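hiii so um. not sure if this is the right channel but i have a protein structure encoded as tokens and i wanna go backwards to a sequence. like what aa goes where. can anyone help
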């Protein structure tokens, strides 16, 4: 996966994604990160990238020329026009299904806005997707793109230690993950559920499924409606909720 991030703060992106699992994934070339400074493409003496909004109003607007030239410089190096995702609170709210869909691309380009946003002609001409990470306003798209790159990258084979952990966890089947425990089995009188110590895999799987269903019903009932439960799941759920 090749990520290209158009930004006024490339060091923020490089540093933010250099630690831990994503740092290792870059070392192993499972993901490549190219943070492009939009300012490098400004074709005026002062390297200005923003200007006052036509019609007046507060704040500054990012000009189209540096952004479009920065995107074109990436396109020239590829054999196709990659998706250009603009991070904006006006976009579609990011979720796990979108992460999975985006993880199948070879190259993705992200555009981080600042100030009062980008000139609308950028959105009209080169942006293919608009994504928000939630209903709140950030100072720029950089933190949002890091969230999205993190969520996509962990779905790419080899990035996590065992591919299984990306599969069973929260949201994979639309449910929350079951509770996890590690040693000691008794911490100051707080005990790990007996079934997990039993070594009986069938019972353990059954307990975990029940816990997933129960937790989702209690903490995120909104997810249950979308979770595509089997009739067996519905039976289990009915039973545990009666207890
Ligand atoms: N830029 C500013 N706020 C944002 C948000 N909530 N999501 C994505 N990009 C943003």
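sure thing!! here u go:
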């Amino acid at each position: 996966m090749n990520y290209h991030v158009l930004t006024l703060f490339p060091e923020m992106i490089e540093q933010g994604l250099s630690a831990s699992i994503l740092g290792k994934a870059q070392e192993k070339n499972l993901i490549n990160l190219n943070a492009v400074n939009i300012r490098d493409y400004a074709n005026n003496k002062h390297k200005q990238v923003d200007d006052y909004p036509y019609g007046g109003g507060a704040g500054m607007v990012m000009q189209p020329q540096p952004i479009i030239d920065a995107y074109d410089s990436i396109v020239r190096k590829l054999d196709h026009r990659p998706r250009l995702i603009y991070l904006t609170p006006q976009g579609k709210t990011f979720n796990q299904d979108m992460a999975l869909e985006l993880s199948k691309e070879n190259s993705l380009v992200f555009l981080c806005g600042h100030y009062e946003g980008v000139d609308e002609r950028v959105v009209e001409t080169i942006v293919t997707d608009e994504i928000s990470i939630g209903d709140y306003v950030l100072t720029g798209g950089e933190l949002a793109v890091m969230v999205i790159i993190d969520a996509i990258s962990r779905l790419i084979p080899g990035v996590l230690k065992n591919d299984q952990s990306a599969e069973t966890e929260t949201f994979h089947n639309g449910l929350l993950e079951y509770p996890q425990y590690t040693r000691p089995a008794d911490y100051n009188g707080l005990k790990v559920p007996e079934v997990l110590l039993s070594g009986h895999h069938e019972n353990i799987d059954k307990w975990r499924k029940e816990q997933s269903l129960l937790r989702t019903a209690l903490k995120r009932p909104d997810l249950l409606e979308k979770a595509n439960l089997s009739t067996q799941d519905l039976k289990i759920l009915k039973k545990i909720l009666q207890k």
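oh and Strands lie at 2-7, 32-37, 50-51, 61-62, 83-93, 107-112, 129-132, 186-187, 190-191.
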